[in-house]
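Justification of resources, computational component.

The compute hours requested in this renewal are based largely on the per-chain cost of generating structure records like the one below. Each record pairs the submitted sequence with a full structure-token output. That output is archived, and it is also reused by downstream analysis tasks.
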Amino acid sequence: MKTYSQKASEVQRDWLVVDATDRVLGRLATQIATLLRGKHKPTFTPSMDGGDFVIVVNCEKIRVTGRKEEQKIYYRHSGYPGGLKATPYKMMRAKHPDRILRLAVKNMLPKSRLGRQQLGKLRIYAGPTHPHAAQQPQVFVPR
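The structure output for this chain reads:
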């Protein structure tokens, strides 16, 4: 038996639309990360970017479980001493609802050039519309 390795010329990419209305953040993020990596395809190769393009709409209506609404905090650092910034989930949801899902998916992808390339195929929109109708995306219903 030989191990199959996908080549760049064999990659077939689809466009998928995911509606995030009333979906749990982490569960949705894992399914999106799987689609971006291409792990749902039988031709999956870990070192190749064989995933699909994913469009997420209504990300402002995403939900979290437990007390994360009040307790979850996003941290970032400027690189300078004392440069730690903390943003509560409620403020992040009000100002940048797309960043919540983007950060969750980003942390589930490889921390390398390949992960950054795969994250580039993710398009997130706060509202119900998107400008990618020309790509004729298929509707993906998360489990």
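The CA atoms of residues 49 and 95 lie 31 Å apart. The mean pLDDT is 96.
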